[in-house]
From TrEMBL:
Pathway: Lipid metabolism
Originating organism: Prauserella marina
The keyword Signal is annotated on this UniProt entry: no
Name the UniProt record assigns to this protein: 1-acyl-sn-glycerol-3-phosphate acyltransferases
Pfam families per UniProt: Acyltransferase
Amino acid sequence: MSHPWMPVSTCDAACRDAEEPPSVALPRRVLRLFGLLLVLVLAIVSAPTLMVMRNRQPFVRFVFRCLLAACGVGLVVNGKLAGTGRGALVVHNHISWLDIVGLNAIDGGKPLRALAKREIASWPVLGGLVAKAGGVFLERERLSTLPATVANLAEVLRKGAIVAVSPEGTTWCGRASGRFRPALFQAAITGGVPVQPVALRYRTRAGRETAQPSFVGTDTLLDSVRRVLRTRGLVLELFVCPEIAPGRAGDRAELAGLAEAAVHAALGTASVPSRANTVASSRGASLRGGPCPTPATPADLTVPSRAVPTRSRTLH
């Protein structure tokens, strides 16, 4: 059962209706579906072995990369996640189920664990992979469980884990985004670990931002998967921003604000006051010039060089 403070996205199918993304022919879609099913079968068959592997992260990363490749999704990573030595809270904007796949496909010295909504645990294969990768699940509908979740997350971080969370609390289309809720940032403060913002964007290889992978409104997981399989040249682009050191922020609200600003800076966007923003403010919305502006042109996708690290890797 939902509660009054549960994050609500203003995005729906209208965010995608305004664009006509390039699509692949039916034979290519069937081939991608066949490849996706093969990867899922591999993950299911390997699950028993995965449970007893001491260092299973390389194999989990390999499976997530295969998932991206099977779906025809390229991965471009700017920067590098924290490696070894201590824990870190990785925070990112949330658009699609592919977010988790992309983050887990990144090279790193440590396994990347994810804080995800409880429903993901029941998703076919993907839920199991997230769980086996050390995922922590949150019951969003039960506000009473939040303090225990934050305390558990702080302990995990204190022990040296790197955990990815989406502080928006729900998915957005990508051209509109939600405010970073402060609650989960308390775990980083309590655990004494840095926060590392990561900005995600979906675009075509031609450079046009797209909302096709989004998982919003009345979407089912199958709806989103079908759109991903038919989109030509889909690219998930990640910008790993500089860490926010422990003690830099006075409290969790300030820490959330710093992380949100870093993500907007990396994407070259900003919270723009507008009528739509005013209407959505009661829901915690931070809109990029309106709820669903027109798709960005290649020029709009230019990222300030000082906003993100210069290292870039492309995986296909």
